[in-house]
Amino acid sequence: MKNTLYLPEIREMLAQGAADELAEFCQALHPARTAHFMECLSPDEAWAVLQYADAPTRVEIFTYLDDDLQVAIAETQDRKQIAELIAELAHDDRVDLLNEADPKVAAELLQLVPAVERRDILRLQMYPEGTAGAMMTTDFAKLGESLSVQEALAELGRQAEELETIYYLYMVAEHDHLRGLVSARALVSAMGKPATTLGDLMESDLVAVGPYDDQEVVAQKVARFDLLAIPVVDEQRRMLGIITHDDVLDVMLEEATEDAHLISAVAPLEDSYLKTNLFTLIWKRSIWLVILFGAALLTTTALEHYQDRIKSWQWLVAFIPLIISCGGNCGSQSATLIITALSGGDITLSDWKQIMRREGIMGLMLGGVLGICGIFAAMVFIREPQTVRTVLVLPLTLLLIVVCATLTGSVLPLIFKRLGLDPAMMSNPFVAGIMDILGIVIYLNVAILLLT
Fold first, then answer.
1. Structure confidence at residue 1 (pLDDT)
2. Residues 135, 141, 142, CA angle at the centre, nearest 5°?
3. Does residue 37 fall inside a structural domain?
């Protein structure tokens, strides 16, 4: 939600040129809070406010501004000043900003950025969006393993202001080959032994990712090994950069949001809900609704195929909503469990046999529970003369449908994963739609088998 509480005061200070008050506004609060109060300002107003902050604070506040406002400022303000700001941004942040900006403007800004920074930006822009290379920063602590603790502390003191993070200090050999790391905590703990070398302290068994690894793989590794940052290395294990935990959190939120949309049969939004155009929302929802409508028509077709049988046993109609509901619910449960397990890295495609076995057993047990409930439901709600066969139609159908639903709901996400598609595309509504058709077919075939 945008904050308009201090908007009139900020604009009044700008109109009056109240330099002291604006400087205090930029300096007194945490940069994130300052950026929050600036969200409703125009690009010109926001940039004018930032001129009253010192250079490091200006960069911090700018980093916390809304992405759209950042891009608008970059596209509308003095090119030379923006280029100076870009040169001071975190390496991954400035690449993201230039990728979002108008290509013509981005090219102009890139020419004004110092040559060293420009080469770094161009190198990071080579990596496709959604890969480790696109997420990483080349701004990290890099030291030689032959340094003593005392020498490392002195060197770290010189590098610290320019680094995004110093949680981990990476030991590299010639040509930046990654050898190991020393945590900042381990370095501080060794201050009592200043002659100890970093090689004696370093951990050599490191978890790393390649520049073309998917961002979801990166997030899974960081979460699994509880890392604050993860190194990015090439095939020769040369250090290319690091990915910090804050960027991983952004990826996890993005992936979770995308999966939530897909599971609900909504095409993932490229922007936030309120920023997405109404017609875009309608389009993204209507695509899947039309597909699901077509699937539902197949249920109608299935019912028409058995219309004569239904006329003979009209009491079957009363239980159709119950049958398709149970199948859809069980299938959706299985699909959700498998999709989330795949996303979290808890299971892989190689586990398919164990998954099928577990889901089959669960289907039998859950179907047995619902089948017992079905016996009582049949005895209560069937108004026609009851026989053993009549009563058994509903429980036997429920048993078969639940087993079928659990297997279907679990195997379809695995198939999508195997085909290189997002498993979340096999969403709950799709599984429910499939089970509607299968439910009708199973139900009426069981009735035909028992009653004829």
1. 46
2. 105
3. yes
| Other C-beta atoms lying within 10 Å of the C-beta of residue 70 | 23
What's the pLDDT band for 263 if we cut at 50, 70, 90? low
**Residue scoring higher pLDDT (310 or 391):** 391
CB count within 10 Å of CB 339 equals: 27
Q: pLDDT at residue 390 above 60?
A: yes
- CA distances 207 to 186, 223, 227, 328, Å, are 18, 12, 9, 41
HSE-CB at 35 with a 13 A cutoff on CA atoms is 17
Q: Is the domain of 98 the same as that of 149?
A: no
Q: Give residue 88's domain range.
A: 7-126
Residue 250 placed within a domain: no
- Residue at 256 is within a domain: no
- Residue 346 — very low, low, confident or very high, per pLDDT cuts 50/70/90? confident
| DSSP alpha helix (H) spans, 43-114 | 43-50, 55-64, 67-76, 79-88, 91-100, 103-112
Residue 308, pLDDT above cutoff 80:
no
Q: At what angle do helices 388-418 and 428-451 cross, to 10 degrees?
A: 150
Element (H, E) at 229: strand 229-233
Cα-Cα-Cα-Cα dihedral of 158, 160, 161, 164, to 10°? 150
**Strands 229-233 and 178-183: what pairing?**
unpaired
As a whole number of angstroms, the distance between CA 324 and CA 327 comes to 5
What single string gives the DSSP state of each residue in 401-452? Answer: HHHHHHHHHHHHHHHHHHTTS-GGGS-HHHHHHHHHHHHHHHHHHHHHHHH-
Q: Which long-range contacts (CB under 8 A, 24 or more apart) does 201-205 make?
A: 201/149, 202/145, 202/171, 204/179, 204/180
What tens digit of pLDDT does each residue of 400-414 get? 999 999 999 999 889
